[in-house]
Amino acid sequence: MRLKDVIVGLAMTGAGIIYLRMTAALPTKDGVDAATVPTMLAWMMIALGLAELVGAWRRHSAQATRDLTAPTLATATVPPAPAVSSGMVTVVLTLVLIAGFVAALRPLGFPIATALYLFLQFLLLTPRSSRPPVALYAGLAAGASALIFATFRYGFDLLLPAGPLVAWLN
Amino acid sequence: MFDLLIQGFAAVLSLQIFLLMVAGVAVGIVFGAVPGLTAVMAIALCLPMTYGLGPAAGISLLIALFVGATSGGLISAILLKIPGTPSSIATTFDGGPMMEKGEGAKALGVGIVFSFLGTIASIAALAFIAPSLAKVALSFGPHEYFAIAVFSLTLIATLSSGSMAKGIFAGVLGFAVSTVGIAPVDATTRFTFGQVELNAGFSILTVLVGMFAVAEIIKVAETSRRPVDGSVKPPLVKIKGFGFSMAEFLGQIPNAIRSSLIGISIGILPGIGAGTSNIIAYIAAKKRSKTPEQFGKGTIEGVVASETANNAGIGGAMIPLLTLGIPGDAVTAIMLGGLMIHGIQPGPMLFLTQAPLVYTIFAALIVSACLMLVLEFWGLRLFIRLLAIPKHILLPIILVLCAVGAFGLASRVFDIWTILGFGILGYAFVKAGIPTAPFIIGFILGPMAETSFRRGLQLSRGDFTGFLTNPISGTFLALAALSIVWQLYGEYRASRGPAMANPLKLGGEE
Predict the structure, then answer these.
(1) Do residues A70 and A92 both lie within one domain?
(2) What is chain B's alpha carbon radius of gyration, rounded to the nearest angstrom?
(3) Residue A28's pLDDT is what?
């Protein structure tokens, strides 16, 4: 059985169980109430998670049967185990950067937080094969940040947080 | 009807709205053309710009983006052999080989002209079908609305995924997320954890932006640092005239009519939009062709079929959206969000209470189609250059614009955290092979389904059989059950041999 299929099936079932427990805390009345539909949804999620687990097991059994009947072909076509993706590090760092950007919006203000985020994100996502043009990225980040801020604040009257720049802007 | 349409044109052709639409179609074409950028992203990032605009201007801009993005996919499909959007997959089958044979200009010309004709045909269908359907829908009660919501959700869940369990789970989870906030009918507060921000539930926009735009950015982050084997430079193509002869044009009319009908019919059905219709139209064109052996080697018939069908889906998808308030896919879901932000509640009453606005939408669709035709011919050289902008520059800027859009909803940083949360969920869906579209449709239809379910039960005094004995709701529930049985049968056949897999899976939303 593929580990990924099991994890997905368990996550689906787990999500259903957590939702069911949250639903149990809702106030109930006689007949159909605010908890009725969520309870039905929770049981459906649990059933679908279990169905996915059963499906994963059946696919595994069918694969095992095929391997037994055609061992040579099976061994010839089994792909090599994938290496742990180095891209996941970039994903985690990207999430940290986005979270940092959101957290910095109020204290630093939109222009500074955005310029910093864009600069770091450009650097992080640049392909390894090319050398990042740091000065260009810095200019691009500052320019894009200023342009977006000015467009929305003055063009569309959207009061984006200005942070320490507020006194200067007013 | 024609008076209202003329009013609509008068509104759309005012200088402000017209310029907005020119910009909207151009931005839409770029988003459609660049692989990885989507129509959803284009609409999501332009939504905050519409907050300060009136409903007519705002909706016209969103429609321009929708039309531009649907058509723009053909540029990269022909020049790079990479479909910019799932709706242009079949365009690569013959557009790519035509490019290799030195007939790139002809392929682009054919694609652009028949995209335009497909859009116009679908707008005609929309203008004639939608008002009649809205009249019928006026008589619908909670039983019918509940059954239609269940049918739409089931169809999307079963057709948009390789695994029915995962597809339905996504729909159910979307429905569950929609239960956050104040419950319908009795106003009980649910799953808010004491957070005042959650009392109104999650906004459609934050969910859509998170699940599609932010998730896409995280997905790109996973592969962006890999060394590039050699940049794919789009070749320059010179188009003289339309690139094809009048005889070739007239010879493709039957193909275009058939493909339009396929595109419109599939566009109306929830869940199987332009991503599928272009492939079905391509298969149908090949079956009906006198020279089927030319398909895949570079024939204009293939390009005509694909591009006519995918653009014909635009008007088709707008029919259930405007008449019932039911979006068929992610793009129409975000259009629904955009309409609601401007205080427009799609549904049958829209045709009675805001008829001028409905016809403004029709006029905006026609003007957008004309602008798409003009801009794609005149601006092709510019759009080709934009294909070369690296994604690691483009996507972070798009994320910032999405954050601005979320912030603009209620001036709360909380909404930006929400898009990040849904972005992580969307990325988890991609990794787990769970389709996103059923989640979105479950989230949107959930409140309608629950309200109708509870009101229906109140009307039938707690009797569940009321949903089955009502002829319309009974029919839709039977169709929902049939779609599940069909999918189970498809999975059974697929398990016996890959060649027998469900053909509707081709070109799915993911």
Answers:
(1) no
(2) 22
(3) 81
A119 touches chain B (CB under 8 A): no
Task: Note whether residue B228 is domain-resident.
Answer: no
ipTM: 0.87
End-to-end CA distance of chain A: 63
Cβ-based contacts of B420 with chain A (< 8 Å): 95, 98-99, 102
Q: Is A82 domain-assigned?
A: no
Number of domains in chain A: 2
Tens of pLDDT along B248-268? 889 999 999 999 998 888 888
Contact flag A126-B224 (C-beta cutoff 8 Å): yes
Same domain for A160 and A105? yes
Choose among B287, B332, B437, B344: nearest CA to B63.
B332
Interface membership of A4 toward B (CB under 8 Å): yes
**Residues of A with Cβ-Cβ distance to B416 under 8 angstroms:** 102, 105
Q: What is the pLDDT of residues A73-128, one digit of tens each?
A: 444 444 544 444 668 889 999 999 999 999 999 999 999 999 999 999 999 988 88
Q: What is the mean pLDDT of chain B?
A: 83
pLDDT digits (tens, 9 = 90+) for B493-503: 776 665 444 44
Is B221–A99 a contact, with Cβ atoms under 8 angstroms apart?
A: no
Q: Chain B contacts of A8, Cβ < 8 Å? A: 166, 432-434
Structural domain including A41 reads 3-77
Q: Are residues A55 and A115 in the same domain?
A: no
The three-class DSSP label of residue B190 is strand
- From chain A residues 29-58, the ones with a CB under 8 A of any chain B CB are 29, 31-34, 36-38, 41-42, 44-45, 48-49, 51-52, 55
Q: Are residues A164 and A131 in the same domain?
A: yes
Q: Could you tell me the residue range of the domain that residue B339 belongs to?
A: 2-214+252-505
Q: Which of A77, A95, A122 is the last residue of a domain?
A: A77
Q: What is the mean pLDDT of residues B50-62?
A: 86
Span of A69-78, B46-55, B267-276 with lowest mean pLDDT: A69-78
Size of interface A-B (CB pairs under 8 A): 167
Are residues A97 and A129 part of one domain?
yes
Helix axes B39-50, B15-33, angle to 10 degrees: 150
From chain B, pick out residues whose CB is under 8 angstroms from the CB of A33.
Answer: 186, 188
Instruction: Give the C-alpha separation, A30 to A34, whole Å.
Output: 11
**Cβ of A139 under 8 Å from any chain B Cβ?**
no
The domain tally of chain B equals: 1
Q: Are strands B189-190 and B181-182 parallel, antiparallel or unpaired?
A: antiparallel
The SS3 of residue B229 is coil
- Single out the residue in A77, A107, A129 at which a domain terminates: A77
A106 and A132, same domain (yes or no): yes
Residues A42 and A105 in one domain: no
What pLDDT does residue B500 have? Answer: 47
Q: Give residue B162's pLDDT.
A: 66
CA distance B362 to B376: 21
Query: Does residue A155 sit in the same domain as residue A124?
Result: yes
The beta-carbon neighbor of B48 closest among A37, A51, A158 is A158
CB contact under 8 A, A122 and B392: yes
